[in-house]
Design a protein that fits this description.
By secondary structure, the chain is α/β, with parallel strands linked by helices. It contains 13 helices and 13 strands. It has a seven-stranded parallel beta sheet, sandwiched between helices. A six-stranded parallel beta sheet has the order 10-9-8-11-12-13, sandwiched between helices. Helix 1 runs parallel beside helix 2. It starts with a strand and ends with a helix. InterPro entries: Glyco_trans_4-like_N.
Length: about 375
């Protein structure tokens, strides 16, 4: 039996996207400790058998004092648990958890679930994050990536050698949980769905601009929006609701009813590790419209299971939405069926979990 300590920043992401991996660890007799901020999914994780340690952190920005406290807290947790393996997810747990693992000489693996804002433009912040990643990753057992471009960035920046850089097909998708269903019947309406944090980098500016143009031309289109506000978009969302342009439902613990009611899923994101929402919607047979960027394009066969659009281009997004609106119900069904097949072939959660466990447990 091994003690496995997992560090991450958010309970919902850990439960929704890693519960199958955690369950596999528990089923093979390992003790799993999770250190992260408290949240509504902690009970679900502890019911599975995880042991919870409250480890609060500031998810966004760099504050030297707070981040140093986080590093000290992680080191204290490692001292108390004495894990046989440390596994980290997301930027700050990767950086400071990785450094803690290195200092304490504990075998550790890092998961890069996306490069984040810091890598989007050159500057002091990017240099600092690269520097910290080099320190954190130097003695890592392995570093997992969700797309090939992110993996190559880390290799090019000399953060990790090729032999330790392992690309997975994202977190994968549970094909039993997200089952295929045919297009909905909306009495002439078409529903576009967006799920994600309401923030600029998810492409919501372009989405809202394209939605307004679509609504000016078509009276039988609905835009359903799910997600929490990460930035100050509340007034704009309320204004669009008042105009009848969008319907905002906030955070939803179970997104499947909304996917079933959607005709097409739209994600015009600026950057992703691997967008799980794309995988979930395609698994349920929904055509996709998303950005032609790493972490999104892998989920789509352009022109066959959906459409790729130029990043930050609201006009291209609008035109692809129009292309979709011209499709018949049978054509939409055909696209959805091909999308499901693509997900089954490339993103089956069982295969991703198997590959992860194999790499983590290798000597």
């Amino acid at each position: 039996m091994k003690k496995i300590l997992i560090l991450t920043n958010l309970d919902s992401g850990l439960y929704k996207f890693r519960k199958e991996l955690i369950q596999e660890m528990i089923d093979q007799g390992d003790q799993v400790f999770i250190a992260l901020p408290d949240g509504p999914y902690i009970k679900s994780l502890t019911d599975m058998g995880c042991r919870f340690i409250d480890a609060d952190l500031d998810r966004r920005g760099i504050n030297p004092v707070r981040d140093f406290r986080l590093l000290r807290h992680y080191m204290k947790i490692v001292d108390e648990i004495r894990p046989d393996l440390l596994v980290t997810y997301t930027i700050k747990p990767n950086l400071y958890g990785g450094i803690a693992g290195r200092i304490k000489k504990v075998p550790y693996a890092m998961n890069v679930t996306g490069l984040g804002t810091a890598f989007q433009k050159d500057g002091l912040l990017k240099d600092l994050v690269v520097f910290l990643y080099r320190i954190a990753g130097k003695h890592a057992k392995t570093i997992f990536f969700e797309n090939e471009e992110n993996r190559q960035v880390f290799i090019d920046k000399k953060i990790v050698g090729e032999e330790k850089a392992c690309r997975l097909n994202g977190a994968g998708v549970n094909l039993e949980e997200f089952q295929f269903c045919g297009p909905p019947c909306h009495a002439g309406e078409t529903h576009f769905l967006f799920m994600g944090r309401i923030m600029k980098e998810k492409g919501v500016d372009e989405l809202f601009e394209a939605a307004e143009r679509i609504m000016e031309k078509y009276g039988d289109v609905v835009f359903d929006i799910l997600g929490t506000f990460e930035e100050d978009y509340r007034q704009r969302v309320e204004a669009l609701e008042d105009k009848g342009c969008i319907r905002y439902y906030g955070f939803q613990a179970d997104v499947r009813p909304f996917i079933r009611q959607a005709d097409c899923f739209v994600l015009p994101s600026y950057h992703e590790g691997m967008a799980n929402t794309l995988l979930e919607c395609a698994a349920m047979g929904r055509p996709l419209i998303t950005s032609d960027i790493p972490g999104c394009r892998e989920a789509v066969i352009d022109g066959e299971t959906g459409y790729l659009v130029r990043v930050k281009d609201s006009r291209d997004l609008y035109e692809k939405m129009e292309d979709f609106l011209r499709l018949s119900r049978d054509e939409r069904m055909h696209i959805g069926e091909k999308g499901r097949c693509h997900i089954e072939n490339a993103f089956d959660k069982k295969k991703v979990v198997e590959a992860t466990i194999s790499r983590l447990m290798a000597e």
